[in-house]
Predict the 3D structure of the following.
Amino acid sequence: MITYPEKLNLAQTPTPFYLLERLSANLGIANAPRIWIKRDDLTGSATSGNKIRKLEFLLAEAQANGCDTVITSGGVQSNHCRAVAILGAQLGLKVHLLLRSDSKPQAVGNLLLDQLVGATISHYSIREFKRLDSLFKHWTEHYQEQGSKAYSIPTGGSNGTGIWGYISAAEELAADFVRYQINPRAIVHASGSGGTQAGLMLGCYLHGISAPVKGYAVCDNSAYFTRKINADLQDWKHRYASDIDISALKAETFDDYIGPGYGQAGPEIFDFIKQVAAIEGILLDPVYTGKAFYGLIEDIKKGKYSQPAPSSQSSQSDDIVFIHTGGLFGLFAQQQQLGF
């Protein structure tokens, strides 16, 4: 029995889970696996995406600590920052966003919503962002001097508290797999800050799911994610004094489909986004889910997820689960790339 810390009920869960029948049929690959989707883009409307699962635990901790202000950070089109800004407005918390950008950004997509709900926004260059810890310290002390108490949330909400969101999501997945009588050969998702991946890995272990978790990096490289995910897992173990042995949990992150860089995608990604939208009515984004889902399909074509030989002792079915982690508003910020 897993004892969860206190959380706020902010997400619309459990999220839908179903087979992408037309996409699976349209791959045109002999013996291709069936592709299922977990619609974590439907955790809310303005708060849609995976970040809200983490924030249920993080913001509960902020309130329990008597904080009236939340400081967090991310890219200028950060889904996480948008979710924090909107939830802060819903909960009556002041929100201060530290956003990374080397040029003056347009108020579109997530940034538009950040401004709409009244978040305080400070823009910093990529060079300035390298001293992010000191920026958090500066603003925490600033609010303390004003008589406020600030709670700092790391980029992406990825730390030992935030990963509870996807430990909980893994419990949902376990129920989904029982309902549809599948034992997937892989659970796939986009990885940007590592927290979702760490939570899924630990959650699958705790809830007895044998399918490996495979992250598709949208920034950095696989070595970075190995270090970051291990740090988040160790942070979780330290915070919650767990005696669970996490040494066997090894991150598997593919860094082949990052493209030009974080928040940047090539024309093949935008073509793929249009294809998936037309076939399944699923809306992906060019920052996270478009890259990860494209990478998954390309790797299926390359045989990376091929059915094992009949002599294999594997009990896993010929199914792959893709976690749709959201990101719709980021698509609006790059809509000109769609060619319409």
The beta strands are 17-19, 34-39, 69-75, 94-100, 120-124, 150-153, 186-191, 213-217, 253-254, 319-324. The longest helix spans residues 222-239. Confidence is low (pLDDT under 50) at residues 309-313.
